[in-house]
Every structure is written in C-alpha cells, then in structure tokens.
C-alpha cells in the first residue's frame, strides 16, 4: 500500500495483477497497456492473474485464447453469449443474470456475442494471449 496508505481505484481505468505470492498491484490502463503487457513492461510482477472490467455494446471482433490458464468471466449486467471453439467441439454459454459466470478452459478459443449492453469482470492468466479475426 505504500506510504500514502490505501487508495480507491476504478476497474475501468486501472486493472489489477494478482500475484502468486498474494500481492495485489494496480496497473493503470493507458493506450499502450496491451503492448506494454505483451512487451514485458510488467514482467517484474511475475506470473499471476489479471483482473479487468469491460463494458460491451457490440459483438467481439476477434477470438482470443489464453494458453497459460483458465479464465473466469463474470457478467455484472446485460446479456451475452460466449462461444467456445475447443478441440472435439464447441459450445455456446449464455450469460443472462448478473453474477452468472463461466470458466473458459486454458487453451480454448473464445469470442462473445453481445445481446444487450453488458458489463463484465474478467480474471485471466493473460501471459501468451493470442487473437484471431472472427
């Protein structure tokens, strides 16, 4: 917490790194955040989970995959369908009620269809994340 003591943050503009040692580190979201993340700017934090929050108005324009771990996806408001494309067959997982969630298994391509404006909380092992067009 540092010398200044506890502070308040907003998940829309400050994500959180949860370290395997129990650490919690706020990460300001800038225009270069994702490039910095993949470029190693945060490598001093070590492995862990990234907690992020997004508001969606439209379907995702890409698929993504997280090879280093499962992803928790929790709907806070709205309605979405998550499409999973896994070896051996895909699935569509509906999220309709606030608090409903799914676990996207490690190494599973996934995308989302937004049925109404939605707010979603993610907890991701983001290292090595890849994207491909829908």
Account of the protein in words:
Strand 5 and strand 6 (89-95) form a beta hairpin. The chain is built from 1 helix and 9 strands. It has one domain (14-41, 48-133): Jelly Rolls. The protein is mainly beta and 134 residues long. Strands 1, 2, 3, 5, 6, 7 and 8 form a 7-stranded antiparallel sheet that branches. It is globular and about 45 Å long.
Give the SSE string: EEHEEEEEEE
The dominant shape is: globular
- Termini distance? 41 Å
Number of strands: 9
> Overall mean pLDDT score?
89
Percent of residues in beta strands = over 45%
User: By helix and strand content, what is the structural category?
Assistant: mainly beta
Figure out the total of helices: 1
Number of self-contained structural domains: 1
The biggest beta sheet, please?
A: 7 strands, antiparallel
Task: Provide the CATH architecture.
Answer: Sandwich
The radius of gyration is 15 Å
């Amino acid at each position: 917490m540092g010398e200044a003591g506890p502070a308040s943050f907003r998940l829309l503009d400050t994500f959180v790194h949860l370290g395997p040692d129990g650490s919690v580190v706020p990460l300001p979201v800038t225009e270069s955040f994702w490039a910095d993340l993949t470029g190693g700017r945060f490598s001093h934090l070590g492995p862990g989970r990234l907690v992020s929050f997004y508001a969606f108005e439209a379907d995702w324009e890409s698929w993504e995959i997280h090879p280093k771990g499962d992803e928790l996806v929790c709907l806070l408001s709205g309605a979405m369908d998550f499409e999973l494309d896994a070896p051996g067959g895909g699935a569509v997982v509906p999220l309709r009620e606030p608090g409903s969630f799914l676990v996207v298994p490690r190494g599973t391509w996934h995308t989302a269809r937004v049925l109404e404006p939605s707010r979603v909380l993610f907890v991701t092992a983001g290292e090595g994340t890849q994207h491909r067009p829908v």
